[in-house]
Design a protein that fits this description.
- The protein is built from 8 helices and 14 strands.
- The chain is an alpha/beta fold.
- It has 2 domains: about 180 residues, Rossmann fold (3-Layer(aba) Sandwich); about 70 residues, Trehalose-6-phosphate phosphatase related protein, domain 2 (Alpha-Beta Plaits, 2-Layer Sandwich), CATH 3.30.70.1020.
- The strands form 3 sheets. The protein has an 8-stranded mixed beta sheet, sandwiched between helices.
- The longest helix has 17 residues.
- The radius of gyration is 18 Å and the shape is globular.
């Protein structure tokens, strides 16, 4: 099932229509990190959320279930947040961890160390000398950031990534994002499957619970689709943002900025 709509056509999650939608039900909140809890920044290591956002999320977690679902490695996002008592699905859900139960196993979790190491070395060799390009190895993927690269360099990066994928059709897949290519093992797992796994594993599948997912990137569309008919997807981003131009989404509501996310989370569950 798909209900894709243009970003400009989505109602705001701050409107009464959202409140009516969840009336009488207990929210379970799933949050991407970059672009949702903190603005997108040129250097990924600088994406530290504000003190007020930290307080807002911690207060919300005292009232309802809160899970962080991110493409970041779990330990990296925990360090950026300065918080280690929230459920975190890192590496696009390959690494799921609960503060009470430890690592939550799932069917595709494996050791991809050798593959990621090999791909990282290849990318470093082929991308060497290209200005504005950064390589970020993770536990189950490697990201190539090109936000700070010139247009002609971006074209070269795409060509190199496409070439590497063509050489490894059964081993690698790409997850496109905002000025980043993420190369991951070619297995059937994504943020949407991770969210469904968390719903089952944390006992959030009852009719009185409404799963709510907030995300901004293309990778979050898997979660929006996974929740169609059983939860609510909220896209974070402004229709005026060039990176949202022409985008269609399976989210049902929108929040225009990280500040609006903070307002939304502050009111949720009260």
């Amino acid at each position: 099932m798909t209900t894709t709509r243009a970003v400009a056509d989505l109602p705001s999650a701050l409107d009464d229509a959202f409140s009516r939608r969840i009336a009488g039900r207990r929210p379970a909140v799933f949050l991407d990190y970059d672009g949702v809890l903190t603005p997108i920044v040129p250097r990924p290591e600088d994406a530290v959320w504000s003190d007020s956002m930290r307080r807002t999320v911690r207060d919300l977690a005292d009232r309802v279930s809160v899970c962080i679902v991110t493409g970041r490695d779990r330990d990296v996002v925990q360090q950026l947040m300065g918080v280690d008592d929230l459920v975190v699905a890192g590496s696009h859900g390959f690494d799921i961890w609960s503060p009470t139960g430890g690592r939550l196993a799932h069917g595709v979790l494996g050791d991809f160390t050798d593959l990621i190491s090999e791909v990282t070395d290849t990318l470093r060799a082929r991308l060497a000398g290209l200005e504005g390009v950064g390589i970020e190895p993770k536990r189950a993927s490697v990201a190539v950031h090109y936000r700070q690269a010139a247009p002609e360099v971006r074209d070269r990066v795409k060509a190199i990534v496409d070439e590497l994928l063509a050489e490894n059709p059964d081993r690698l897949a790409v997850v496109p994002g905002k000025m980043v290519y993420e190369l991951k093992p070619a297995v059937d797992w994504n943020k949407g499957k991770a969210v469904l796994h968390l719903i089952d594993g944390l006992g959030l599948g009852s009719d009185d619970v409404v799963p709510i997912y907030l995300g901004d990137d293309i990778t979050d569309e898997d979660a929006f689709r996974a929740l169609l008919g059983r939860g609510i997807g909220i896209l974070v981003g402004s229709p005026d943002d060039p990176e949202m131009a022409g985008r269609r989404t399976d989210a049902e509501f929108v929040l225009g900025s990280v500040d609006e996310v903070e307002r939304f989370l502050s009111a949720l569950g009260r």
